[in-house]
Amino acid sequence: MAARERIRTEHAPQAIGPYSQGIKTGQFVYTAGQTPIDPATGKLVEGDIAEQTAQVISNLSAILQAAGCTLDDVVKTTVFLMDMGNFAAMNEVYKRFFSSDSPPARSTVQVAGLPMGARVEIECVAVLPQGSERQAGNHEGNGD
Q1: Which domains are seen in the chain, by residue range?
Q2: pLDDT tens, 34-50?
């Protein structure tokens, strides 16, 4: 079985249940779904879907950075929306953060509810490049 490394950072919301912010195994990083919680306050970001989507992606970026990668390394995302009517506005923010040359694969689904009344949640999978220092475990902000 491949070794698993728990990823933790103060720059993203802390896990509020029996789960990790992220897990690194081999060359893959899997994040927990992130909602628009401001890690400094622990409170949901007020505002529209655009503001909430930006906070969610900022939280994902912090977890990926703690694992030693970036949003450019993301290969798959899953977006959970409370209202599919917010798809276009969410998508406008989303495309600012992900490369238009090679965006990650994505699924988007409407859900009946999200924690704390959030409008959006996103999880992702990233791949660390072969042979890089990042894959070798040279990163900060994690541990058990």
Answers
A1: 4-127 (3.30.1330.40)
A2: 999 999 999 999 899 99
